[in-house]
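Recap from last week: sequence in, structure out.
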Amino acid sequence: MPTTTIGLLHPGEMGSAIGQAIRTAGGRVLWSSEGRSARTEAAAVAAGLDDVGSLASLVAASEVIVSVCPPHAAFELARQVAALGFRGLYVDANAVSPSTVRRMAAVVQRTATFVDGGIIGLPPKAAGTTRLYVSGASAARAVALFTGSLIEAIAIEGGIGAASALKMAYAAWTKGSAALLMAVRGLALSEGVDSALLAEWQRSLPELPDRSESVAKGNARKAWRFVAEMEEIAAAFSSAGLPDGFHRAAGEIYRRLEGYKDAPEPPSASAVVGQVVKPAAHS
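Predicted structure tokens:
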């Protein structure tokens, strides 16, 4: 059976894991180093991906393109690929709202085939931890790319938008509740009752002290990516006739943590919690 050539956009922490999974399943994976950071290059090299230089070269050489990028860049990246005349299978695996992914599909499907995707879980180190949900008429083709890898690809019904809707609903809780916990700790800190709150949680909600610490430390360096994701979730809520303020506020919490991007070490939880409080709150 001939090897499928897949272009990966772009191999960051999750993207490189996706690329490595596709290689494990037997695919050849290309990436484009043009305009990418040294960190991305290191991840691509570690994953065994083949650099073809430019986006144009990647599009020309690929039968399938898998997009894994920050949510704010997903639509523009799809537009660029379509403008280069891509005619294969385009799998969008980004954290975007159903309305955004349908706009992307409308652009890409002028020349190519489109599959909607949503990733749940961290970059996999073992089987059973990470799933890629896909939807659309050609979802089975996307599933086949990952057969035998650490990533479980699952096709769901509902057409384009279904996989993104599932991702939005899932992240609305996981990342939304994490932002709420940081905001609650921020309020307690600004009023001088943080220690008392932690003591009460330990008595009545014993899982929350450790969780509030872990989400603060774990999310700080990735917060810059979550701002647009919260905005996409808010758009999904609004389109469904639901209040969107929950996740617009969560986006603002993550925006206040953008300075931790590329921090060399995970910051302390207390520093992160302090950062979500505007200085005016202490006056």
